Amino acid sequence: MEHNEIALEAQVSRKVMAARLAVGLVQGLLLYWLYAASRDVAWPATAPYLMAPLLTVLLIVPVLLVSSLGHLAPRQAAAWLLAALAVLLVLALHDVWRGTNSYSFLSNWNDKPIGSPSMLLVVFSCVFFFIAHALVMAGAQDGKRIASYNTYFEVAWKLAIQLLFSAFFVGAVFLVLYMGASLFMLVKLNFLHKLLEESWFNVPISCTAFSCAMHVTDVRPSIVRGIRTLLLVLMSWILPVAVVLVTGFLCTLPFTGLTALWETRHATSVLLFTAAVLLVLVNAAFQNGQAVVALPLRVSARMAAILILPIIMVGIYALGLRVVQYGWTSDRVIAAASLLVASSYAIGYLWAAYQYDTWLRPLAVVNIFTSFLVLAVLLALFTPIADPARIGVNSQMARLAKGKIVAAKFDFRYLRFEGGRYGQAALEELKRSAGPDAALLLREATAAQALSLKQRWQPPVRSTAPVSVAANMIVWPAGAQLPASFVAQKWDAMPDDRKPDCLTIKDGKCDAFILDAGGDGKQQVLLVARSYANLGRLFAAGADGNWTVVATMSYRDTACKAVIEKLRKGEFNLIDRPYKDLNVGGRRVEFEISDTPEEDCSKIK
C-alpha cells in the first residue's frame, strides 16, 4: 500500500497540483464574472442562450478537469472533457429553449429577465456527471470499456468522499477567515471583514480552495480509504434498524389499508426515499463484494434486497392513482422515471437475494447495468425525448378535451409556470377555443399569462373594477345582514395586507361573522377567506364611520375546520381575557396565552 501511495504522489506531481489550483482560480474568476453580470443585469446575463450554457459548463467541467489531471492521459482527458462539454451544451440549450419558469440557479433581485439554467438541471447534471466520471475513470484505470466492479467501487467512493470533504474544506477556510476578521475587528481593523463581504473575493477563493482540497485528498488515498471504510461500517450497522422499520411498515398495510397513505399526497416521494436508503445501506454492507461481513448484517442485507421491490410496487401504485385522477405533470413524470430506475434495482436485488450460493455477488452486475440506465434516463428527461414539461402539458390538455376536468377547475397556471414553451403554446390554443366555455378559457388563459404573475401560487392580482362586497360574503348567523356602511365602504384605499381578497376581487369568497366582540352592543364583522389559509380579520367601525381591522384571528384557528363550523352554527360565547393588558408609556402590551392540550383542533367536539 505504501508503494502504491508513493507511486501516486509521483504521478500527481507538483505540476499537476499547480494546474489544479490554476483551474480552480480561473473557474472562480469566470464564475464571479457571470455572477456580476447577473447582479448588474449585464451581458452575458441578458443573453440566455449564452449565459445558461456558460454557467452550467463552468460549474461542472472544471471539477471534471481537476479530477482527471494525473489520472487520465492527455488524449483521454481531452476526449472525455469534449464529450462532457457537448452533453452539457445540449442540456443547457434545451433548458433555455423549453423556457420553463422553474427555479433558476441564479436569483435576480432586480426582477429583470436574466439567463440562468434551472436548478433542476444543475442538480441532475451533477448527478449525471458524477456517475459518468466514475465510469470513465474506472474504465481508464482498468484499460477496458467496462471495468471490474472492484474498480468502480474504489473510484466512485473515492470521488464521493473527495467531493464531500472538499466542500467541508471550503467551509472550514471561510470559518477561519471569519475568525480572523473578528480578531481584527477587536482592534478596530475591519479590512478583512469588508473583504469577506465582496463576491469578487469569495467566489474565486471558494473555487481555488475546492480544487486544493481535491488535490490533497487525491494524493492521500490511504486517508480516503480509511474514511470510506469507517463510513461504510457505521452505515451498514444501521441496516438492521431500517429492515425492522420497513418490515413493520409493510406488515401494517393489510390492516390499515392504503387510503391513509394516499391522503398524504406525497406517498410516492417518501417510498422512493425509503427505497434509496435501503439501496445505500445494502451497498454499505456489500461494499465491493469481498469484505468480511458479520452474519446479522448478511441476513439484514439479504432481507433489505427483498424488501425494496414491495416498497417500489406500492410507490408505483400510488403514482398510478394520482395519474389516473389528475393526469401527468412534470413532477409525476420525474417520479415515474425515478421509479423506473428503482424498479431496475429492486428486480435485480431480488434476484441477487435468492442466489444463496454467493454473498449477493450479482449486485455487482445490477449496479453497473443500472448506472448506465440512470444516464440514459437523465438524458431522456432533459432533452426532447421525454421532456416532463411536454408530457405534462399534453396530458392536462387531453384531460380538458375529454371532459375529465371542467374548465372552471382547470389549472391554467400549471401551463404557465411548469409547462414552459409547451404550456405557453397551450394557453394560446385555449384562448382561441370555441364552444360553451370559450369565454372562460379566454379569460383564465389571459390571466395566467399576466406579466404581474411571478409565481404559480401567487394570490390573484387585485382588481380595480367595482366589486360587489355583499355578493362575496356568506353571512353568519344565517339571515343576518352586513352593516350598510361596511358594504358601501371603498376598500381600495386599504393596504392589501390588511384586507382579504373578497373585499376587492370578483368571486373572492369570505365567511362574514356578525359579532359583538366588545360586548357593548356595537356590531363587528369577522372575515375569514375561503380560498386559502389566511388570517381572520375583525373589522370595527371607528368614530368617523370607517371600518378598519382591530384584531386578527390566527392561522392556527382559521385552519381548524371544527372552529369554523362551530362559528357558522353560532356555537360559541364570549369570554374575558384571563390577564389584563399592560399600558407601557401609552403602548398596549398584550399577553399571549400559552397553548394547552385542550386547545388541540382535533379534540374539538
Please describe what this structure looks like:
- This protein is mainly α.
- Strands 1-2-3-4-5 form a five-stranded mixed β-sheet. It has a two-stranded antiparallel sheet with strand order 6-7.
- It has four domains: 2-229, no CATH class; 237-386, no CATH class; 388-448, no CATH class; 470-603, no CATH class.
- 60% of the residues lie in helices and 6% in strands.
- The chain starts with a helix and ends in a 16-residue tail after the last strand.
- Helix 20 (484-488) links the parallel strand 1 and strand 2.
- Residues 462-466 have low confidence and may be disordered.
- It is globular and about 90 Å long.
- This is DUF4153 domain-containing protein.
- Keywords: Membrane, Transmembrane, Transmembrane helix.
